[in-house]
Design goal:
1 helix, eight-stranded antiparallel beta barrel, single chain, mainly beta
Amino acid sequence: MAMLVAPRITALFTLVVMGGALVSCGGNRLSIPAQTIPNIAGSWEFVAISSSGSVTGIEVALTEGNVLVNGFQQPNGQITATSTQIAFVSLSPTTLNITGFGGVCQPVTSSNALSGAVTATDSPIQFMFTENGNVFNVNGTLSGDGKSVLNGTYTAQSGNTCSTDTGGTITGLAVPKVSGMYAGTMCPLSTTCSSSQDFTDTVTATATENSSSVLTLNLTLTGTDNASLTLTGPVTGNAFLLQGTVQGQTVVYSGYYEVIKNVPSLYLVNATDSASPNYVATLAVQTP
């Protein structure tokens, strides 16, 4: 008889506990809290692969709006980038290394922008970007950690004049700040660096990007020029635009952070004459 009582007591105890839990939930009217809108502001690179085969790197210094919640500023999910906060580069379809600045939709203009909205991680993200006056709509999924955009597609709006890119697939990744020691050979001042004989300077460089996304590149040149060169300027995604003075001459360099055969590298172009930019160096990261 005792053996039958024990299971009944156990079952009764279980029902009481479950009932108490249900009453507690109903009495307190607990609810699942709303998901917090993620803050995804920062440096991003979106890689757009068109159906025609061209590949564009969309380099963005993404900003996000805020709203006051219970006395605290919280992200509101409205993402934007305008003017110098967005830039375009052409990438190799096979290596994703840079082949040129300005993107595939030419000519280059100042009509560049990005705007859209995000509501939560592991959820849809929509935005549109304007590349040299051509507008594209993007739909994708923001990853769980808020650091990448997956399964994205982009389509051209009617009225676009860019025949080389009418839409395709797109992915995005938040990129880290540029830093480290780099080295290589360089042709710093000439606008006719066309052969290995022109790269007569050995260069070491220290790269530091601050919290305001301003990159400082300190270079020491040994060889033909034997000079020191400090370049500074804003970073936009993996791209940057630097200015400095070497041997009394003001220079402007366009640059891009890329990985070549698993080696992080800085690609530099002398863009002092914006109508005729000239490649001057690729500097590879130096490991301790």
